[in-house]
Amino acid sequence: MNLAIRDIGRSAVRFLLTAFGIGLLTSGSLVMQGIYRGIVTDATKLVRTVDADIWVVEAATTGPFAETSRVPRSLVDRVAAVPGVRAARAFALASETVTADGRRQTASLLSLDLTDDGGWLPLMSGRLLRSAGEIVVDASLGVAIGGAVTVGGETLTVVGLMEGMVEPSGDPMVAVAAADFRRVQGYRPPEAVELARASSDVTPGDGAALSAVTASLQPGRSSFAVLDRIRTWPDVAALTRDDQLGLVINGRLERLRKQILLFTGLLSVITAAVVTVTIYAMTVEKQHTIALLKLMGARDRVVLRLILDQTGLLAVSGIALGFWIEATVAPLFPRRIVVDSGAALQVSAIVVVTCLIGSIAGIWRASRIDAREALS
Amino acid sequence: MTAVLDIDRVSRVFHNGGERIAVLDGASLAVDAGEMVALKGPSGSGKSTLLLIAGALDRPDDGAVTVAGTRIFPDRHAEPALRALRRRAIGFVFQKANLVPFLTAAENVELARFIDAAPRGEAKARARDLLATLGLGERFDSLPSRLSGGEQQRVAVARALANQPALILADEPTAALDGARGRQVLELLKGATKSGVGVLVVTHDDRALDLFDRVVSIADGKIVAGTERYGG
Ligand SMILES: Nc1ncnc2c1ncn2[C@@H]1O[C@H](COP(=O)(O)OP(=O)(O)O)[C@@H](O)[C@H]1O
Ligand SMILES: [Mg+2]
Question: Which residues of chain A carry a pLDDT beneath 50?
Fold first, then answer.
């Protein structure tokens, strides 16, 4: 005989409505966590996929993602010569306007040296670049293989589609041959050239510069020796893959994380308030029964169990409804929502703890009920 | 016969504003196992107060109280110990049946065993046996709201008997019932004495006094009649 369930049966509608309310709040937390994790996944995708153990960037910067970094092309050979480095590659990334199917949009342009054909790219279909004039794009750009993409005056043919290569802003990434990349970087629309002449601005497009040089290590080699060596060079800074991940998450996403943390906190406070009101009201309604239990000699834990069982049922049904609501609404969101087991556990734990906090008032109320109240 | 309740020269004083009211003033009363005692007295004479003291729900100011072999006054017991005593040794019946509204008749009776952590099957069987014996075989699964006043009170008696207590304390259990149904309830309590339960009933109902082994009255804070022991 479970007193909690029997009592709930009496006010099932109110209980379900409360559980649904908690479910809505839970789904709110889940979606927020999911959006955050989705953004982290997108933001770190490039750092996680690119075949680089070490990032060599402009001195005194934390580029190329957290801030601008420019290094000379000759740095590739210098890094390649460091003992322990298996391969060094040029890394260049630039934001460009691309036109595909008559639609203009911003994309992140990634430069690939054709000797290194970008085997690390998460290719979904088609093939990698073989020559200049070709482009590999993220599927979200919405162009099929064989289609044409215009960028910086160049018209390139799509040969491959990638999956999940998206900037935190939602902009898709595209990869082109280094030669095309340089041309695009050096390109100025004719009007701009006119304007530049008129204002005697003669700065040429610095198409030759790189954002960074990435290095992969020889198997079994520790990164410390390589890092130590590169860090003696005054003109560059060296970062590990973890440094880069940390920079992306803590630098670019810090405010977002705080926003989401605060929002989740707010939802928890509302949940606690809803649970407090409900459990307290249910306890007051059962006042006479609780007094009777004490009069009959029930241990305090029978009463505690009654309240905690109801709280637990509220939490569990709230969480279940929350996941159901989240799964129902998630596909409606334009951006990726990642509810992994970590997010699920975290949100569930928060709801359970919140519900327990919410039951404190009810427990306190029950503890003050005198057995003799059963007689009045 | 052993006394399942022994109240010895008990006093209980209430302070109402500046006024000092000695509701009980040296009241003595014993109830033996298997004995059914009626406690009579005018309204406000302290009958309920005496029952609360006997039920470990109130403490007197003076005297001694022993219930089922446990001296609860002047000795001090922690609340959990008093609850255990109530749970195992005392059954309560009141004017109102005081049933848990969201439990069926059978579950209300089971509750007494349930809070004593009895095995579910055993508690359930005992509840059904008792209800059947008390003529409620058809009402096992009825909620209290579907039962008549007399039926509710019989369920309350079954609940009081469920843990096979040494002592049953009943405060005007028939006051809300008509004569026939009131008598029925008292007959059920009388039946319980056969298994050795001591029963103390506060009653105004003079028509059923023949069912009692002894009738005592309370006046001026003292038990004034029938304090002498029966049998032995
Ligand atoms: N907790 C209390 N505080 C103050 N006075 C009380 C309290 N309980 C009972 N009394 C008083 O004690 C007297 C006896 O009450 P009670 O035992 O209920 O009488 P009875 O049951 O015989 O009618 C009444 O005058 C009542 O007002
Ligand atoms: Mg009374």
Answer: 201-207
- Higher pLDDT: B205 or A4? It is A4
Model pTM greater than 0.80? no
Q: Among candidates A203, A233, A200, which has minimal Cα distance to A215? A: A233
Which ipTM did the prediction report? Answer: 0.93
Q: How far is the CA of B129 from the centre of ligand 2 (A)?
A: 31
Would A55 be classed as within a structural domain? no
B1 and B35 Cβ atoms separated by less than 8 Å: yes
Give per-residue pLDDT as tens, B174-189: 998 888 888 989 999 9
In this structure, are A194 and A289 located in the same domain? no
Residue-range definition of the domain harbouring residue A318: 3-43+254-375
CB contact under 8 A, B87 and A7: no
pLDDT of amino acid A323: 96
CB contact A368 to B (< 8 Å): no
Q: Which of A18, A67, A297, A252 is nearest to B116 (CA)?
A: A297
Asked if A213 and A268 sit in the same domain, the reply is no
> Starting from the edge strand earliest in sequence, which strands make up the sheet with B3-16, in order?
B19-32, B3-16, B62-67, B70-73
Sheet harboring B36-40: ordered strands across?
B90-93, B167-171, B198-202, B36-40, B214-219, B222-225
Q: List the helix and strand counts (H, then E) for chain B.
A: 6, 10
| Domain final position from A200, A234, A268 | A234
For the record, the structure tokens of A54 come out as 């070490």
Q: What is the pLDDT of residue B227?
A: 42
Bridge-partner residues for A151, per DSSP? A98, A154
Q: In angstroms, how far is CA A180 from the centroid of its own chain? A: 31
Same domain, A34 and A118: no
From first CA to last CA, the distance across chain A in angstroms is: 27
Best residue in A14, A296, A310, A370 to probe B by mutation, most B CBs within 10 Å?
Answer: A296
Alpha carbons A179 and A191: distance in angstroms, whole number: 24
Q: Residue A64: what pLDDT?
A: 86
The Cα–Cα gap between B14 and B17 comes to 9
